[in-house]
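SEQUENCE, STRUCTURE TOKENS:
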Amino acid sequence: MKAFRKILFFTVAAVTILAMSTLARAQETAQVLRAVPHAPLDILDPIWTTAYITRSHGYLVYDTLFGMDENLEPQPQMVETWDVSDDALTWTFTLRPGQSWHDGTPVTAADAVASLRRWGAVDGTGQALFSQISVIKAVDDATFRIVLTEPFPSMVPALAQLSSYVPFMMPARIAATPPGAPITDPTGSGPYILSMQDWVPGESAVYLRNTAYVPRDEPTSLAAGGKIAFLDRIEWVNYPDQQAAAQALIANEVHYLESPTTTLAKELAKVDAVSVAPADALGSIGMAVFNHQIPPFDNVDLRRAVLTGMTQRAYMEAAITDPDYWRVCTSVIPCGTALEAPQAGSVFGRADLDEARALVAASGYDGTPVVILDPVDSPVLSAFTQVTIDLFADLGIAVDHQEMTWAELLERRVNRGAENGWNMFHTWWLAIDLGDPMRIAFSGNPATGWVGWPADPELEALRAAYLRAPETADRARIAADVQARIVDQAHFAILGQFYEPIAFRDNVIGLQRGIQMYYNLALQSE
């Protein structure tokens, strides 16, 4: 990324030393970080939605049994010890002592069991795991046991899943909420507490240090190790537009801007006391999602026609603009990951409008307007939307263009049917969230899959075979078949791979990537 300047990701040891030194000099002055997140916080339930703002909220207020470190290796977090039987069918986990919920009650094994059940109902890997669980129960207050019908070698990595859906631990009374009903009580055991009296959905959120939290002794490493709350208060604030947010950063009214446009990022990189860096080395993946449950995109031939007319370059040039920040990637599983298969999605790299028009006509499309949801408060997603609208005009597909906020889209997209429904929207995923066929975005089971809800038993059979495959080469071959099947059935469109910048004041230390965790952050005097 040639545009990035003054990349200040300190080592963990340096961060801890600097942050503790800063705090020692400022015992009488509260450490308050003001940040502009990439989206407003409207939904508090990271098991109900895959929205990244809710996942970021989750990492502040919840903890996990295991956590992925910066090398993407799972490490124990809330778990102190665990044991596996010789036949690999019985797993026993013991929680570390001294953990409590924000309301002061102790964390128990029963809470962990209830939390895993709720997560396992919605997450792709969790669904695969629970399909092989015969027993999951608390043995005592500190210990729970999982008994499998067949070995599940990915047990610990699954429980350490880094991003949507993260298996966050909640009190059993809250985890008893059906996964289809969003929770509104953010009681967790994590390093920060959401101040409900200061939360204004769509505008701002305030997090206060959890003084009862006992971090692990190991150094912080992404979602693993000691999650240290150096800050007394974290304020998430939202601005009416990106220019206003950038000006607030320049004026030192905020310390951290999560997702400036690439144009703004280049300007901010020229400002003294402000730094710009890539959010994630692997980047993010643009996606166009079809609703398979209602016309007209219940018709695979029409979906194939749309894919034939698309080109990633058009989407990236419109939404990301600067070629330093994006690339064409025709793999469904992201480029740069072990299972990439660029040949599977070659259709994403070109646009054949003449063929696409012919396919639209041959599909039997009857002129039904396509309801496209447009989150106008997200510049990237709104730009994606406009490219599709222009394409549909060229292809003769009628459009019902409905503008809304991203928060409104998240509420709307759960509707499967035509009533207050939708046919298409655009989104993006972190590359790590699409790293293997078991991720929920690739599900072909409409009963338990992600929004869009394709029904594809053949795809599900391939995913099950991937899970059972013992060898790396076998898994790579099956993963390629999964990707080819997704493209053949036009389950969704991949719009390109891009690299979001972040911008921050130079006195912000403790930043991590590829996910920006707000614990372990601290402020130095500028």
The chain has three domains: 12-37+191-279, 61-175, 284-498. Confidence is low (pLDDT under 50) at residues 1-19, 21-27.
